[in-house]
Amino acid sequence: MHAIQLTAINELSIADVPVPEPIRGEALVRIKAAALNHRDVWMKLGQYAGITFPARPGSDGSGVVESVGPGVDPQWIGREVIINPSFGWGDNERAQGDHFTILGLPRAGTLAELIALPVAQLTEKPSHLSWTEAAALPLAGLTAYRAVFSRAQLKRNEKILITGIGSGVALFALQCAVAQGAEVHVTSSSDEKIARAITLGAKGGFNYTHAGWATTAAHAGHRFDVIVDSAGGDGFELLVDLAAPGGRIVFFGATRGNPPVLPMRKIFWRQISLLGTTMGSSSDWAAMVDFVGQHWITPVVSDVFTFDRAAEAFALMEKGGQFGKIVLTP
Ligand SMILES: NC(=O)c1ccc[n+]([C@@H]2O[C@H](COP(=O)([O-])OP(=O)(O)OC[C@H]3O[C@@H](n4cnc5c(N)ncnc54)[C@H](OP(=O)(O)O)[C@@H]3O)[C@@H](O)[C@H]2O)c1
User: Fold this and answer.
1) What is each CA distance from 278 to 93, 134, 141, 230, in whole angstroms?
2) Residue 57 gets which letter from DSSP?
3) What is the rounded CA–CA span in Å between residue 256 and residue 325?
């Protein structure tokens, strides 16, 4: 079968690899679509913790169960599924345990025609989603759901700011927050992406490349109950300024590195909570899939590439050209 492999830093190719054999408790899934996350780019650049080559990226996928290993009910065969990429969370809802891993490293990922996975990681595909939409859901959906609800506890009518709306996770956070009845504002480097976010239910947005954007937002009277960020860097201090008293800033990435300054006095005096989050537990996963079904949320698919055009797909994500998820099909 064909699979996409990283053989060294920035060396991406399609390889012929053996079809995996599902072991006890596993099913063999024929991938219909897989999606990229920024983590796959960090892997390609050799910047992901623990990366060794060769490696097969891909945390997201949708497909059909083709066969099952010992101990698995044969009724799984033929089921249309999505894959939960969060492995071994453990039984503490507050944080993942020591055995937590994400599909795609160290375990070979979804950028392959077939993948063998524990059936416990498989969930019925939401029926309103196409294969590409379903593949776009897992990692971004899970991360955004836990950030917005399990961690930041967003309530109806609260004001939320979501930064870098071009990001797959940010867009899903937007869709969750709109469905919850919150007032959503976004930031982006692109006015066009802000305009598209408004068509998805955002009330407004700010271009973070414009100096003084946060001052403009503050002068317009904006103070946010919840702020969702994955950029960090020197823009993080501005987010503290924009948080309402008692506000919650939740973050799951540091694309721009650590903030050079953490304004301690502002944070404690204004009772602001800084909340770290990563992916989600099995309960977050089940709640997210349920929420998507209840609200008919459809992940935004930016671009679809066939496996032989994987290099183009990665390049698009590296330059941040997408709006929503980049999907690959075998
Ligand atoms: N901890 C976890 O479980 C977890 C899960 C998923 C992702 N992440 C991390 O979260 C980050 C985003 O991941 P992703 O897969 O959603 O990435 P992505 O789809 O590649 O999105 C990256 C986006 O970051 C935004 N951005 C870049 N610089 C920014 C800045 N200075 N201020 C605000 N936004 C900025 C850009 O938004 P615009 O195009 O709108 O400017 C860009 O589109 C990465 O660091 C990733 O490693 C962590």
Assistant:
1) 12, 21, 12, 11
2) -
3) 20
Cα 22 to chain center, whole Å?
27
- Answer yes or no: are the C-beta atoms of 106 and 154 closer than 8 Å: no
Q: How far apart are CA 180 and CA 152, in angstroms?
A: 13
Question: CA 87 to CA 282: how far, in whole Å?
Answer: 9
Q: Return the half-sphere exposure (C-beta side, CA atoms, 13 A cut-off) of residue 161.
A: 28
Pocket of ligand 1 (CB under 6 A): 37-39, 139, 143, 163-169, 187-190, 193, 208, 230-231, 233, 235, 252-253, 255-256, 278-279, 317, 320
Confirm whether pTM is higher than 0.85: yes
C-alpha 123 to ligand 1 mean position (Å)? 26
Our CA angle for 78, 83, 88, nearest 5°, is 125
Cα 193 from Cα 64, distance rounded (Å): 33
pLDDT, one tens digit per residue, over 129-144 is 999 999 999 999 999 9
Strand blocks (E) in the chain: 2-8, 11-16, 26-35, 60-68, 80-83, 86-87, 101-102, 114-118, 122-124, 159-162, 183-188, 204-207, 224-229, 243-251, 273-276, 301-306, 325-329
230 CA to centre of ligand 1 in angstroms: 5
Which residues are within 8 A (CB) of 309 and not within 5 positions of it... i.e. 6 or more apart? none
User: Ligand 1 centre from 163 Cα, in Å?
Assistant: 9
| CB-CB neighbours of 260 under 10 Å | 9
Q: What is the pLDDT, as a whole number, of residue 66?
A: 98
